[in-house]
Design brief:
By secondary structure, the protein is mostly helical. It has one domain. Helices cover 70% and strands 0% of the residues.
């Protein structure tokens, strides 16, 4: 197995791990800021969907992390990586769904809000 294949697979797996829900300790520093930035951008055009877009952004970072981690590990550790199976995808989606429920609760309770809600209001 080539060193280039191991390094690229290891890098991909590391990035995936940092995005995945398996690295719960970094959610505050990686996934939540990425999801919040996504939600802020979406809410600039459609403010009513801030909560939904925040949840979607968070969910997408988690699913992307799990997929990247799986593919990177396969690339780094095997001579001929197999396909990403339906069972693996279902497991990845289930883990992400559990974390999504937490994000929904944070938005519903006002812990996480749209960007304008954090900024001081100007007097007219």
């Amino acid at each position: 197995m080539s060193l280039k294949r191991k390094l690229s697979g290891g890098t991909l797996a590391f990035i995936g791990f940092m995005l995945s829900p398996l690295s719960w300790w970094n959610d505050l520093f990686v996934n939540v800021p990425l999801a919040l930035a996504f939600a802020w951008i979406v809410s600039l055009f459609w403010p009513a969907v801030f909560g939904a877009s925040f949840v979607l952004g968070y969910w997408l970072t988690n699913v992307l992390g799990l997929v990247l981690m799986q593919k990177g590990a396969q690339q780094a550790l095997s001579e001929k990586p197999g396909p990403y199976s339906r069972r693996q995808l279902i497991a990845d989606l289930g883990i992400s769904l559990a974390y999504t429920l937490l994000i929904i609760a944070l938005v519903q309770h006002g812990v996480i809000k749209p960007l304008p809600d954090y900024l001081p209001q100007r007097a007219p």
